[in-house]
Inverse folding.
């Protein structure tokens, strides 16, 4: 049953990024009256675009956890921590690269990624 839930959550993420990205975020990003964030409208657009799509990545991580709950319940803690570590790492690296480290979310995401990874591998969970 949870595998079906995972498939649904993966599908929600896919539709969120594809359809929502095209029909909601793209028209918003095309507006000429966006506020200036982090010094430029370009950074405003990047912040909105990455924030929109990174949510999908976190949902897909949760879909993986749902599958692990059903097929390998002894590894739920590790799966949760590793998917959190991966998603946070990607979010942090994207924040650094795309905003040239202006968007300070990387200050939270990267330590979170490393702490979660450490806890999953060596933390004795």
């Amino acid at each position: 049953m949870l595998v079906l839930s995972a498939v649904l959550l993966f599908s929600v993420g896919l539709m969120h990024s594809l359809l929502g990205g095209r029909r909601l975020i793209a028209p918003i990003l095309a507006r000429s009256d966006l506020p200036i964030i982090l010094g430029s409208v370009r950074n405003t657009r990047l912040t909105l675009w990455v924030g929109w799509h990174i949510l999908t990545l976190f949902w897909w991580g949760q879909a993986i956890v749902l599958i692990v709950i059903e097929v390998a319940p002894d590894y739920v803690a590790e799966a949760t921590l590793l998917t959190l570590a991966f998603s946070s790492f990607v979010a942090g690296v994207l924040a650094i690269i795309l905003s040239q480290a202006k968007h300070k979310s990387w200050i939270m995401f990267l330590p979170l990624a490393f702490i979660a990874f450490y806890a999953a591998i060596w933390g004795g969970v």
Q: What stands out?
A: The radius of gyration is 17 Å.
